[in-house]
Amino acid sequence: MSSPDLVNGLFSAANWANSFGCDGGNQPLRLDWRGVPAGTKSFAVTMFDPDAPTGSGFWHWLVWDVPATTTGLSQTPPTGAVVGVNAAGAQGYLGPCPPVGDRTHRYRITVYALDTPSLALPAATPPTVTAFTMGGHIIGYAQTTALAAR
What we know:
By secondary structure, the protein is mostly beta strands. The protein has a single domain, classed as PEBP-like (Phosphatidylethanolamine-binding Protein, Alpha-Beta Complex), CATH 3.90.280.10.
């Protein structure tokens, strides 16, 4: 898995949040992947910050029911994909915006190969419930970590 939006493991300004004190473009990452496991019926994509000062991390992005024929994501998800809510309660991507002076945050961007064509979840499903539901269907994954600090 790779992203043309990540250079040396860092987000471009276009991908930073445009809220919480940040003024980035809040554009979702473009992703490409290959080497799909046999039996893949759909994909899910997540971006999670385990370093967020919440006690439980912060889900920035969840997309699921991405068709198995897909080899990447552009800024517009493919037909049939579900764009879920992030930890701020808004649907869609929320770019990085760690607190000023906090340590460097790690953003884990993961593409999961799933053994089901659909998780059968509405977009408003809380991120932890989506992750729990997805957990029983993962047959492979690829992950990269991007860094951000202010």
